[in-house]
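Tutorial handout. Part one gives the primary structure; part two gives the three-dimensional structure as tokens.
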Amino acid sequence: MTQILILLHVLGAAVWVGGHVVLTLVVLPRARRANDPRVVQDFEQGYEPLAMPALLVQIATGIWLAVRAKPESVAWSDLTAFPVSHIALKLLLLFGIFGLAVHAKLRVLPQLEAGGIDVYAKHAWAVTVLSLGLVVVGVGLSTGGFF
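Part two.
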């Protein structure tokens, strides 16, 4: 069962993180060069139906794996003990991503047409960096930790 959970978790991460890397390194530069927010909007329309389920899979499998690793969820806030410190850090990164995503959906994307590509780009880069952080911490969690 653990292998299936890890596989689903990694597949969800591949879709989520991979899509954000493509967004920041390919789509945003194209949108900026063309000064055309539709480039971003077209990407979002195609990517969001894949990204949101992938993120939900990551959240569900991540919680399930965390509970299996450390059933006492109260201890997840202990930032000094491995693997708890990694679980707590992943949760903090996840909350940051979630907050940025909600803000982008409610505030930034609606203003994209009015010249909000730069603001959107900052959000996209922040989500990408936090998402890559999740991957690094997740690999550390699986391999005994980087720190």
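Part three, for discussion. The longest helix spans residues 2-34. The chain has one domain: 2-143.
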